[in-house]
Fold this protein.
Amino acid sequence: MDAVFAALGPRERYQRIQFFVLLAPYLDCISIPHKCAVVPYSSLRKAKGTLSGSASKNFHTNLSVTYGACDIKVFNQSEKIYESACVNGYDYAAPKERSFVSEWDLVCDKSALPEVSQTVLVSGMMIGALLFGFLLDMFGRRPLFVVCHVLYFGVAIVTALMPNYASFVCMRFLQGALQQGIGLSSTIMLLELIPTERRALAIQASSLVWPIGLLVQVYVCYLCKDLSWRYIQLVLAGISCYSLIQFRFVEESIRWLSANNKHEEAEKLIEKAAEANGVDPDTALQLYREEQKKLLPNSQDEVKILRNEKSDDNCQGELMPRESLVVSDKVCDPQGDETETTCYPLDTAGEMKFSAFFKNRNIFIITAIVVYTWFSDNFAYVGLIRLSPFLVNDIYLGFVLGFLVEIAAAIVFIILPNQ
């Protein structure tokens, strides 16, 4: 397939349009200081019965009340005689609707709930990554990408209308899951859009666009900092409004169509890409058809397989220079040393895709390394993102500093893989 994409031109109009549409979703607020609300003097008088006898006698004369962030303390001169929670609610330094934390009083004994909403979001991302990874192979890249993006747009709008914390958390879970559907499908489509030797370009582009998206989000939040969090949510959701017409521009992955024997659709896309790029479609189509012929043996003499008499599921034999071989009722794939092949029954070839992670030593090692790297990288990355607002006094400045660090890292990543 690399020869086909090379014939289409890796940097031509068709690829540029697909890059822009697929990267656009990467272009994606705060706890407000508070203290206990003032309690009327009549309410404090009712608390007299809870005070000690000696303190009660002088209750009206030397009384002083301190309103903390989460408690009310009553002093008789220097002696603390009464303490309680914020029985009359909270007073915030900004309008209460500015943040969902203040709107639903998620402070003091409920201070963990805002962090729980972030945990739920990450849980949704984890479930989405597992679920959509399989669905992308089953139904294709384009349908999942478009559907997830449209649903994400809808869920983001509905989130701004949630009346309570429980419904808000449910929407956060859906946002996390759908976000992974968008991210996985767009990344895979980008990787499958260009030849193998230039495949790093897809990740390099996304690593640069992602921090720019964070900067846009910070800028929008700063401009809307005097508005309710609901309006900010609606503005950020509006960035994805183009998802409603995105299906007109996003094309299915030619590699996925080819792998799933949808050759007629693949050839139509090749012709469309060639026309958009101003190149000869016949050359690309000829290369595509030659690639498909290589996937099947031309004769029985070309492939020699010595079947294993002891097992119906595996066979060993000489490997000819083929990416994948179909022999009788079995599918054969090369092993690491390229001197033998392992064959599986044709009707279980779908199961072989998952079992390959465990049966092929090289694939297993590479997968384990990548998984561990992603885990450690995201563990540190999310921690820095969460802590960046607290590194300086201004939350917006903290996120901007995080943006500068990411841009520097993206530039280094763009330079190093090409060396």
Remarks:
- The chain has a mean pLDDT of 73.
- The two ends are 25 Å apart (CA to CA).
- The CA atoms of residues 2 and 194 lie 8 Å apart.
- The longest helix spans residues 361-391.
